[in-house]
Amino acid sequence: KTKEFNEWAECFVEVCLPSDILSLGIDIYDTPGFLSDNREQILTDNLHKLVKRIKPTLLFLYDNATISDTDKSCFLAMKNALGSMERVSVFFLNTKADCISIANDYLLDDDP
């Protein structure tokens, strides 16, 4: 809400990591603040500018087998922040998949 915060929030920070995936030309942008009920308007404005400029595909990460209330709130806040902007593709990615359950579901044996 302060001028200093707004100036800070408008900055993009570039972090370069050696990665085969990123060398393909994939850019990753992290947009913070969706878990907050009192999200700063500048963060929503930044998201709008980013989406208008690069037309991204969004990747929504969640860490449980099912989407929690917190994840749902976060997604709805992101959807609300996007508002009536052009249609944006969203993919959902579970970051902590239960490999044993997946193997059991597909009747996979762990023996070679």
Walkthrough of the structure:
With 112 residues, this protein is mostly helical. A two-stranded parallel sheet has the order 1-2. It has helices spanning 3-9, 41-54, 69-82, 99-105; strands spanning 58-62, 90-94. The model has no long low-confidence stretch (mean pLDDT 77). The protein has one domain (3-105). It comes from Rotaria socialis.
Q: Give the end-to-end Cα distance, rounded to a whole number of Å.
A: 58 Å
**Sequence of strands across the biggest β-sheet:** 1-2
Percent of residues in β-strands: 5-15%
| Overall shape | globular
Portion in helices: 25-40%
Mean of the pLDDT scores?
77
Low-confidence stretches: none
Number of helix segments? Answer: 4
Count of distinct structural domains? 1
* Cα gyration radius (Å): 18 Å
Structural class: mainly alpha
- The string of secondary-structure elements, in order, is HHEHEH
Strand segment tally: 2
The major sheet is characterized as:
2 strands, parallel
Quick rundown:
The chain has 112 residues and is mostly helical. The chain is 38% helix and 9% strand.
Short key terms for the protein model shown above:
globular, 112 residues, mainly alpha, Achaete scute target 1, 2 strands
